[in-house]
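Suppose a colleague, Dr. K., hands you the sequence of a protein chain of 291 amino acids and asks what its three-dimensional shape might be. Before reaching for any lab equipment, you can write down a predicted structure in token form. Begin with the sequence itself:
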Amino acid sequence: MRSNPADYELLAPATLKSILSILADEPGSWRPIAGGTDLMVQYAAGNLAARKLVSIWGLRELRHIDVLPDEVRIGAGSTYTDLRANAIIESEFPLLSTAASWTGGIANQNRGTIGGNIVNASPAADSLPALLVYEAELILVSVRGERRVPYVTFHTGYRQTRLAPDELVLAVCMRRRYSEYQAYARKVGPRNAQAISKVCIAALSRLAGGVVDDIRIAMGSVAPIPLRLKETETTIRGHRVDPALVSMAQQRAAAEIQPIDDIRSTARYRRAVAGNLVGEFLNRLGSGNAR
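The predicted structure, expressed as tokens, is then:
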């Protein structure tokens, strides 16, 4: 059953300050809406529980990509199209650029925002594993001021986050220090475009003298939250890539994830694919063919 527009209230203040005041006056009562690519699906299906919406779409304070000497700061209102069009994101953070290209079709990329993807907190979201491996930080804002939190700690459970009821995500920050890393990203789904992933991976690694000096691996759709595979990384770090290491890493990855059976796939399939993706990444890394 479709929703009835008369059941909803929508405000569209022109400034961030006004929106933060609304959130502070009635914490938890107002649901921010940016591009609406997730919320409007719920609305169309009659499943949008929030009845009071406040639009943050188009706020200039949220729609920017600032390139600083030591980091890139992406406003939470930046769209996937913005990310794909930015030369620094493409060259220095290719995993995020690739993930942006996976997210829906062109219409969704024109409306969907990086902040919305983060706050929606779907474990299947394409951009979130990239943020994990780049060790992003989030700037959260409210009338009380700003606070900066590591993204890896932001998700506390299935669709649960550390965002307070009166806060917004202001920006995503990533350090500019990955020029020596090789990158790898894959999305496994029922088709090449406009599909929710069964498993997706983002990975970075740096070699020193043929040895894996540093490695970061993150996956989506394999746990209640986007998951950084710390145990798998420990298995790999400090070793040369050879068939024995690849086999051990595949087994560790399959054991470390927490997949479920759902409408898109099975836990057994996800474990097999996760191990295969880690193996493919390491084989490409060993041959120098990672991106």
